[in-house]
Amino acid sequence: MRFRVHPAWWPVLALASPVLVPWLAVQTQRFVVGRTRARRVNGERISSAVPLELPVLDDLELTVLVDFEHEAGFAGDAGHPPRVHSPGCCA
């Protein structure tokens, strides 16, 4: 079994506990108050939401933009290898 805190730190934590325990209690209380406030504010925002009156469209035209080129120094999209095209492929 692996310990989350190495046993060598246990004496230090035991000696520091009179300071750490009240500090952790204050941090926990702040978290609980913040979470309660966030739930209240989010509930108020949700209950005050109204449907948007959007106009009905008779026609919608979409244009898909694809960028095959990139600036010098960039190999390609983040997380993807650079695109390699055969000659005459995408001219």
Question: Explain this structure to me?
Answer:
- The chain contains one helix and no strands.
- The chain is mainly alpha-helical and 91 residues long.
- The chain has a domain at 7-47.
- The radius of gyration is 29 Å and the shape is flat.
- The chain starts with 9 loop residues before the first helix and ends in a 44-residue tail after the last helix.
- The mean pLDDT is 82.
Ordered list of secondary-structure elements with their pairings:
Elements (H helix, E strand, L loop, with lengths): L9 H38 L44
What is shown here, in short?
By secondary structure, the protein is mainly α. The chain is built from 1 helix and no strands. It has one helix at 10-47.
Labels describing this entry:
91 residues
Which structural class best describes the helix and strand composition? mainly alpha
Query: For the CA atoms, what is the radius of gyration?
Result: 29 Å
Distance between the termini: 61 Å
List SSEs in N-to-C order: H
Q: Work out the helicity level.
A: 40-55%
Give the strand content: under 5%
Number of strands: 0
* Global outline: flat
Largest sheet: none
Assembly type of the chains comes to single chain
Low-confidence stretches: none
Mean pLDDT: 82
Number of helices: 1
